[in-house]
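Action item from last week, closing it out:
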Amino acid sequence: MEFESTCQSSRRALLRATAATVFVGTAASARDELPSRLVKNGRLKQSVCRWCFRTIGLDDLAAAAAKMGLVGVDLLSPDEFPVLKKYGLVCTMTKTHGIKDGLNDPANHDSCLEAINSAIEANAAAGFRNVICFSGNRRGLDDRTGMKNCVTALKKILPVAEKAGVVINMELLNSRVNHPDYMCDRSEWGIELVRQVGSDHFKLLYDIYHMQIMEGDIIRSIQKNHDYFGHYHTAGNPGRHELDDTQELNYPAICRAIVETGYDGFFGQEFRPTRDPLTSLAEAVELCDV
């Protein structure tokens, strides 16, 4: 055990030292010197969320992701798809409408559904699978009425998604730390919404970081409810940073639990780096390649 821990620490130190040397030079030389093909097992199809790595140009991020063995990039707009095509990557989750003004309020339905419809059309043309959506904030609305309004909106757009072979994913977010007043903040509420919608083309985006804050019991939730989850996101808690020994989540165990459910979707790295971003990404990719 001590030898294994020493080896892992040495590997992390090597990655950090490599990147520290690399980033003295240009972005092009940086990605040339990144460790190649970190994904060895590939039982999880890993991707990286764009917004967390905005200090890196999309072209450089896509090149680095492809070199590491990731399959795609999360949370892009359709106008960014051509960059992914250059590197043989996919958009693993396409952006639509905003978080606060979501489907739980009928006043937002027209704008939200228009954004979702545009993303579905773009995904269908590109051959991509997932688009995101959000419940919106409560703003005094009770959860039952909010759910009813979400069901009404989703049933209007789902025939389009079903015909296109696209899955709409509503993200579970915490309302304690990052998104106060957000309605879809518990897996129980989200699962009931999926049941009421009643389509294989509507699922939940199970964000491990957010649900650790709201309810914990991550592995048991995945084992019990995986049929309702169409996508996963990572981050360390507390802080939403690297998946390292400063946080409380055991990602290798969580990843093994996901793999054991037979999950065949995407697994997005969505942490905010506190040091060299590609070094942190490389460490997370290796850690989750169970």
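Closing note: The CA atoms of residues 44 and 267 lie 7 Å apart.
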